[in-house]
């Protein structure tokens, strides 16, 4: 069976430790994307189905600055597709057990997902992508027959097993460790940029 280029066959599971001194995870196996800065999206200038998008993030109440940026990019993305932003409260069981916390957050995310969703998770073991490949991902998802494109960003300890196994695509936006609020803004900016690439439009800051 062919492996989807968007899937990540990971050599190590997500660490449940916030200790930055912990050993780095094994690099992902399987095909990797050439990070060619001059690469064009295969959907640039083409008609792409404007699937509704949903962003699921796990975390505490966002800072005012973060929420203002989220609203700005929601408005920009609204020109291209319906966009929904859902914040799931981290550590819903108020436990000090990291494993229990991740499992509870995992269950909360799964309850938000539907069978017809095309699910993309952000994971440290995911595929490195450039903006043009985000555009490709949007176009590819639109060709699958899925009804909604859903992105998932985990909490401080990452995503659980159920969500990662449910994923249709696994990506990472940077090799750096990003705070989940920073990752949220970076992702939304890249989704907006991807749509300008697809439409062949000038990017407006």
UniProtKB/TrEMBL annotation:
Keywords noted in UniProt = Methyltransferase, S-adenosyl-L-methionine, Transferase
Q: Which GO terms describe its biological process?
A: methylation; rRNA processing
- Extract the ranges annotated as region (Disordered): 16-40
One of the record's GO molecular function terms: methyltransferase activity
Q: Output the superkingdom of the source species.
A: Eukaryota
Answer whether the UniProt record assigns the keyword S-adenosyl-L-methionine to this protein.
Answer: yes
Which Pfam families does this chain map to? SPOUT_MTase (PF02590)
Question: Which residues fall in a coiled-coil region?
Answer: none
Q: Which family does it belong to?
A: Belongs to the RNA methyltransferase RlmH family.
For this entry, the protein name equals Putative RNA methyltransferase At5g10620
Protein species of origin:
Dichanthelium oligosanthes
């Amino acid at each position: 069976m062919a492996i989807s280029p968007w899937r990540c066959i990971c050599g190590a599971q997500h660490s449940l430790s916030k200790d930055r001194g912990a050993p780095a995870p094994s690099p992902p196996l399987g095909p990797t994307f050439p990070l060619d800065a001059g690469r064009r999206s295969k959907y640039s200038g083409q008609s792409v189905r404007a699937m509704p998008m949903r962003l699921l993030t796990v975390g505490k109440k966002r800072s005012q600055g973060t929420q203002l940026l989220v609203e700005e990019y929601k408005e920009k993305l609204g020109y291209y597709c319906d966009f929904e932003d859902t914040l799931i409260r981290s550590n819903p069981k108020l436990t000090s057990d990291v494993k229990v916390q991740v499992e509870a957050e995992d269950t909360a995310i799964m309850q938000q997902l539907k069978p017809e969703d095309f699910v993309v998770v952000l994971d440290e073991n995911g595929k490195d992508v450039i903006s043009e490949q985000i555009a490709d991902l949007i176009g590819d998802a639109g060709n699958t027959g899925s009804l909604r494109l859903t992105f998932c960003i985990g909490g401080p300890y990452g995503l659980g097993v159920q969500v990662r196994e449910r994923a249709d695509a696994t990506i990472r936006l940077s090799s750096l460790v990003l705070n989940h609020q920073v990752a949220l803004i970076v992702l939304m900016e890249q989704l907006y940029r991807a749509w300008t690439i697809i439409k062949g439009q000038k990017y407006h800051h």
